[in-house]
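User: If only I could read backbone structure tokens as easily as an amino acid sequence. Underneath my words sits a plain record pairing an amino acid chain with its backbone structure tokens. This is the protein in question:
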Amino acid sequence: MTSVHETVPRAPTGGGGPRGVLEPVARPLAWAMLSRAVAVPLILGLVVFLPAVIAAQPGTGARDTVFWLQLVLTCYAGARLATMILSTRRRLLQGVFWMFVYIAMGVAPLAQAVIGQTPTPLVGPREDLVTATAMILLGCTAFDLGALLASRRPLKRRDASSVRLGGRPALAHPVRLRLLVLVAFAASGYYVMKLGGPAIFFTSRQEISASVAESGIAATESNVGSAFLKGFGTVPALLALLFYTRRLVTTRRARRTPSTVLVWTALLVLNCVVNNPISNARYWFLTVLVSMLFTAFPSSAAMYRTVLTMGVVGALVLFPYADRFRYDDSGYKPKESASVFEPLATKDYDQTVMFANTISWVDTRGHTLGRQLAGSALFFVPRAAWSGKPEDTGVRVGQWMGMKMTNLSAPLWTEFWVDFGGAGMAGGLALVGYAAARTDRRFARAVTREGPGPAGVLAIATPLVAGYTFILLRGPLLQAAGKLAIAALCLMLVTTYGERVARRRR
């Protein structure tokens, strides 16, 4: 029978070495036929049916240039997302990118254009909204171009099998990994005690914020203290859990070692306290969920497709209502909606309109020429030492708009635009697309037999960044930089390039 190839777990081997690593095996033609059967309704649903249903909704929105540009952007992002879902390769970073674009900058703004409402008011002329939509489309095209250039450049053989050829892959040192576990328990334990015990993590985010304020860590002029407390209280615990999860799913020896199973269980309980959806923002819990799924099922095409497909459904149906635990019972005021698309126009997805407001803001003061990005990169510098340190882009634009609540989004397109304009935005998105495509290809090889095995750091870092992509794309970058830097420090702590460890792993 004619067959196609797909990477699946290979049969267990003897000894106590790594198990569950992957190698290509033949799949029957029926699998390919099934994929084609699913492809047609999926593409039609994302590219044709859902945009058509939204366009047919009643509303006061004008069918002007904004509407048609938004419709083109939605269909384009839907086609690219369908390509990611149906691809035989698992493209984690690119898949999450297109899922975010399709939902937050495609479907949601299209519903806003039809209904005639936006979560955040448009303070500038409507021409700025036309420019914002066109620039988002340009940025998506630049991202695709960067990914295409990355695919044209072949990976070096030593990247695919650096262990075999005597290279030095990034591995998690076993002793340093145990040190990370100790850091996770110490930092999370301090976080829990500082806020008053585990019970408060199952109340509401409003209670968490109040406890942080009462602890004296957060200052009125700076949030660095509270950001570090929350970051070190949550990130090391998640990373330690991811590393131990990979060990359990790839090696039978680890599953038969009581100490490893016990540590994994303790880390799971710890994460249920500090990283649960009640006490954390929705975007951070998405990071936890997505990184855990991609780590536990690194080579499962079914899980990869399920995450992307169900992500669209969850974002449209569940995500607007997932802020139930943001406030306590007295502060929670649910809004009734007559349509499933109405929450998209009245709640969370303000990325496109905030881009338009940012364009209006830049028109009044000019581009910052790298200042905003420098502030995000140097987030750890206190304002006492840097008197002119930039604020969050979303906060600055919100203050200019006269908004009382300035916790507004500043998507990655906006961050590049504020500093360098349209050309810088296109170049920045092209670099992001190039880096995402290269990382996806290396991850695909890192979780196969050619990769460094259970101790490979890339097999953990890529799922984590894939989950965190929601936060990076939503912005502002200054808010997102803290936890990302803490994750990088934790990875640096456990990473080694020593050949002795590589030989021990073999």
